[in-house]
């Protein structure tokens, strides 16, 4: 015997009922089938409304009743043909007349009892079963319409009656005939000992099906609904959520309790007790596999079966010294809430017993608060407990999986993922069964949290990282190219999905939560009508509240650098080649680092020194492992190295070589920063700060090599003109070096606690002498490297290498999410 139950949507339209027929008839070829049906979608609510309207003396119930009548008669007309149709119409009309009579009576006496409401509300199932059984019978004569009142026997608790299982099981065995291929049974209704109609409460049709399946020892109970089973998370929040193919009863219960409303747990108790598996299937996508809920959880690799959530939660926090060591305190709290019909969803209590915190539905807050305050009036007045604290607009997110108990660190991982996304956890509960870890968070963080957790716990998922990019000049453009080139590789090899969710240049900005087309991200930016303003950019980025977000500053702008503090405090990481933030006052640099630590964001700026070379990371590793910097000797300007490697005082002028360095993207957007030595001062300052020294820009001595008049030029154009004017000065510098058999290098040095930068003649045979092109070199002499310094050397300027350094920082952060 097979038992199938079809929900309201499955039987909601004539077209859907035709699909139901296909499903049932296919099954009936193999074995007898019992088909339990719900009311057509929306009918039960309409019936209840009719009852309430009639009871309040409002004749509008008649209009609603007409709608109910028409929907059933029209469905019957569409489904049936020939003689069957008038016959069905007669029986439908007789049922509808009975309903009309009851409602008329209610209207006249202006009163409806729960018992009468049971009679009214179950008409949906009765009418639906009448139509469906007649429709089936038209093609399959061996179809029978069951009356559950004959065999499902309950007490007289109208509205939510309790089943007498002994009697019911016996009556089912006696009443369900083996002689019909298909039996159609209306769900939800039953009868008490004296034959009066009762109903089975919430999930009633599932309950009917479960009672039948259990009594008949069905091999499986099939629940056909409008979703393809239980999903790994709510798909309206998590696009990558997918159907769980197999799950244990316990896990299914946990998921259902916390939001996956595919089943109502109490309604499946009868099959659960007998270990009968339940198959959840989608009527409108019958080819989908669905979810099989079986007695034992399936031992698969997947540690987490699903994520679920409940929205609109409030926390009640009762605390006070008067609670400590007093027996029955929690008992009294729960009893008070229970008496007030407030259901407690989650509980946490500190072992000190100083406080107890419960999560309830937000809609129960007022009732709960009033009840608790009244009950604990004495303790409150004696200040033994503090006034009840209520926090609203919260949600619960739960991680569910039977395999969690075999895994160390699951809750740690969960909390760390939420923390690195700036999600504050208000309360946490983990049962000793370890099948569920639930956290209470702000409601606005739900989408971000579910997605971040889903990507981290479901191995099939790619972890999405959202990039907000400001600056699309030399470096910015090179970065966009590299992101495009690496996208497939990162997806396939590292399961990281980098999306550009925001982009800006100095004029415009553009946002797309799903990510811009990586092949042409500039198109949308260039046609955007949104004017770039950094405050609006940040507001939009923060309000998008996306998981795993990184802001990348590819500008050289102070205004942008000044916003890092705010960005980091919103748990959005910052990656930047812009040196301004790290070279302001030491207190500001320190504050940024502390903010990043406090808000679990990352602040990375490897490209501030030596472009893509791993200089800051190397230094960080030395310092973190306890080493100490004794000396630094370095060439830190790619552009100056390029200029002095290419200027010979003959073929091209000094101004022409600077222009070439600018053209090739080695200089700062304003080359005066390079030529003045300021850029090198910034870099050595950053290295000293990263070495642990509290240093300011003024602590660095710098000897300029460029005439003061050039540096005082009011614009970059004027600067070039003045450099041309002073060509003889530069010629003399290079000729003197050549005559001494040396090369000119702009050197930064830290020795004996002092930092200096300046142009020097470098003799052959020293590490700085053979530094080609735009290369940089840094020699760290440390306690561990006292004789032979640790050397980092390579290309130290240029858009490509800088972009690849930025990419490296992005990946370092992406791997922490
Ligand atoms: N070129 C190199 O070798 C290296 C450069 N850097 C740094 O990289 C950064 C970028 O350099 P480049 O790409 O060469 O500069 P660039 O001048 O080519 O590009 C700057 C970009 O920033 C945008 N921008 C300027 N102000 C803005 C604002 N207020 N809001 C939004 N966007 C704004 C511009 O529209 C442009 O797209 C600079 O901070 C530079 O110091 C760091 C290491 C090496
Ligand atoms: N302008 C800089 C580039 C990177 O910081 C340089 O010349 O080194």
Give the overall shape, derived from the CA principal axes: elongated
Rg over alpha carbons? 37 Å
Sheet with the most strands: spatial strand order: 3-5-2-1-8-10-11-9
CATH class of the largest domain: Alpha Beta
Beta strands, count? 30
Mean pLDDT equals 92
| Name of the CATH homologous superfamily of the largest domain | Acetylglutamate kinase-like
Low-confidence stretches: none
The overall number of domains is: 4
State the major sheet: 8 strands, mixed
Helix content: 40-55%
CATH architectural category of the largest domain: 3-Layer(aba) Sandwich
The termini sit apart by 51 Å
Could you describe the 3D structure shown?
The protein folds into four domains: 2-226, Carbamate kinase (3-Layer(aba) Sandwich); 306-457, VC0802-like (2-Layer Sandwich), CATH 3.30.2130; 464-609 and 807-814, 3-Layer(aba) Sandwich (Rossmann fold), CATH 3.40.50; 615-797, Dihydrodipicolinate Reductase, domain 2. It has 30 helices and 30 strands. The strands form five sheets. The protein has an eight-stranded mixed beta sheet with strand order 3-5-2-1-8-10-11-9, with helices on both faces. Strands 21-20-19-18-22-23-24 form a seven-stranded mixed beta sheet, sandwiched between helices. It has a six-stranded antiparallel beta sheet with strand order 13-14-12-15-17-16. The chain has 817 residues and is an alpha/beta fold. The longest helix has 26 residues, at 84-109. The chain binds 1,4-dihydronicotinamide adenine dinucleotide and the ligand N[C@@H](CC=O)C(=O)O. 1,4-dihydronicotinamide adenine dinucleotide (NAI) binds at residues 470-476, 504-506, 532, 554-557, 559-560, 577-579, 607, 611, 638, 665-666, 668-669, 797-799, 802. Residues 611, 637-639, 666-668, 674, 679, 796-797 line the site of ligand LTNE7NMQ. Bifunctional aspartate kinase and homoserine dehydrogenase that catalyzes the first and the third steps toward the synthesis of lysine, methionine and threonine from aspartate. Its cofactor is a metal cation. It holds the Pfam family NAD_binding_3. Keywords: Amino-acid biosynthesis, ATP-binding, Kinase, Lysine biosynthesis, Metal-binding, Methionine biosynthesis, Multifunctional enzyme, NAD, NADP, Nucleotide-binding, Oxidoreductase, Sodium, Threonine biosynthesis, Transferase.
């Amino acid at each position: 015997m097979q038992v199938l139950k079809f929900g309201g949507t499955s039987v909601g339209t004539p077209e859907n009922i035709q699909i139901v027929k296909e499903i049932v008839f296919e099954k009936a070829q193999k074995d007898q089938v019992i088909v339990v049906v719900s009311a057509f979608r929306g009918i039960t609510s309409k019936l209840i409304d009719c009852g309430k309207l009639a009871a309040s003396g409002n004749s509008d119930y008649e209009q609603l009743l007409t709608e109910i009548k028409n929907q059933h008669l029209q469905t019957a007309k569409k489904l049936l043909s020939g003689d069957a149709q008038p016959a069905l119409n007669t029986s439908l009309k007789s049922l509808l007349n009975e309903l009309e009579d009851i409602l008329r009576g209610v209207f006249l006496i202006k009163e409806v009892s729960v018992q009468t409401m049971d009679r009214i509300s179950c008409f949906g199932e009765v009418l639906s079963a009448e139509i469906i059984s007649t429709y089936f019978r038209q093609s399959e004569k061996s179809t029978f319409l069951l009356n559950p009142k004959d065999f499902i026997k309950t007490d007289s608790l109208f509205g939510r009656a309790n089943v007498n299982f002994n009697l019911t099981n016996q009556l089912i065995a006696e009443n369900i005939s083996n002689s019909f291929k298909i039996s159609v049974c209306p769900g939800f209704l039953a009868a008490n000992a004296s034959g009066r109609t009762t109903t089975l409460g919430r999930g009633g049709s599932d309950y009917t099906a479960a009672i039948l399946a259990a009594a008949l020892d069905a091999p499986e109970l099939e629940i056909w609904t409008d979703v393809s089973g239980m999903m790994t998370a709510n798909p309206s929040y998590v696009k990558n959520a997918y159907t769980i193919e197999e799950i244990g009863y316990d896990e299914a219960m946990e998921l259902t309790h916390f939001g996956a409303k595919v089943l109502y747990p109490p309604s499946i108790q009868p099959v659960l007790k007998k270990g009968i598996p339940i198959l959840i299937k989608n009527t409108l996508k019958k080819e989908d596999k669905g979810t099989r809920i079986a007695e034992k959880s399936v031992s698969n690799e997947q540690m987490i079966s699903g994520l679920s959530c409940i929205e609109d939660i409030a926390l009640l926090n009762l605390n006070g010294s008067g609670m400590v060591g007093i027996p029955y305190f929690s008992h009294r709290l729960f009893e008070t809430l229970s008496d007030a019909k407030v259901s407690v969803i989650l509980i946490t209590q500190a072992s000190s017993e100083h406080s107890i915190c419960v999560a309830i539905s937000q809609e129960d807050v007022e009732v709960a608060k009033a009840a608790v305050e009244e009950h604990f009036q004495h303790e409150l007045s004696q200040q033994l407990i503090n006034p009840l604290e209520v926090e609203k607009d919260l949600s619960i997110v739960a991680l569910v999986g039977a395999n969690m108990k075999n895994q160390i660190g699951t809750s740690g991982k969960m909390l760390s993922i939420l923390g690195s996304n700036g999600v504050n956890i208000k309360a946490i509960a983990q049962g000793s069964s370890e099948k569920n870890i639930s956290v209470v968070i702000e409601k606005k963080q739900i989408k971000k949290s579910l997605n971040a957790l889903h990507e981290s716990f479901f191995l099939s998922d790619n972890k999405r990282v959202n990039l907000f990019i400001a600056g699309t000049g030399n470096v910015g453009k090179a970065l966009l190219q590299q992101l495009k080139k690496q996208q497939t590789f990162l997806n396939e090899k590292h399961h990281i999905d980098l999306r550009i969710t925001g982009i800006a240049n100095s004029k415009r900005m553009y946002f797309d939560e799903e990510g811009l087309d990586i092949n042409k991200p500039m198109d949308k930016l260039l046609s955007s009508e949104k004017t770039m303003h950094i405050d609006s950019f940040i507001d939009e980025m923060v309000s998008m509240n996306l998981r795993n977000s990184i802001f990348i500053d590819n500008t050289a702008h102070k205004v942008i650098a000044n916003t890092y503090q705010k960005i980091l405090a919103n748990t959005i990481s910052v990656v930047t080649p812009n040196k301004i933030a790290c070279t302001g006052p030491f207190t500001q640099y320190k504050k940024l680092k502390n903010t990043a630590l406090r808000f679990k964001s990352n602040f990375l700026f490897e490209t501030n020194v030596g472009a893509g070379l791993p200089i800051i990371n190397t230094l960080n590793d030395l310092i973190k492992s306890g080493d100490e910097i004794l000396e630094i000797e370095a060439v830190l300007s790619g552009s100056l190295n390029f200029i002095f490697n290419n200027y010979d005082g003959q073929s091209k002028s000094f101004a022409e070589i600077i222009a070439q360095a600018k053209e090739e993207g080695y200089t700062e957007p304003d080359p005066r920063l390079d030529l003045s030595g300021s850029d090198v001062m910034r870099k050595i300052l950053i290295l000293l700060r990263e070495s642990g020294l509290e240093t300011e820009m003024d602590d660095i001595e710098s000897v300029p090599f460029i005439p003061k008049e050039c540096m005082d030029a009011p614009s970059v154009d004027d600067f070039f003109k003045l450099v041309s004017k002073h060509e003889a000065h530069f010629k003399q510098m290079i000729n003197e070096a050549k005559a001494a058999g040396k090369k000119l290098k702009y050197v930064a040095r830290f020795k004996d606690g002092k930092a200096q930068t300046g142009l020097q003649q470098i003799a052959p045979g020293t590490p700085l002498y053979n530094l080609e092109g735009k290369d940089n070199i840094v020699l760290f002499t440390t306690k561990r490297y006292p004789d032979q310094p640790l050397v980092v050397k390579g290309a130290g300027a240029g858009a490509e290498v800088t972009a690849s350094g930025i990419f490296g920082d992005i990946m370092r952060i992406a791997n922490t999410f």
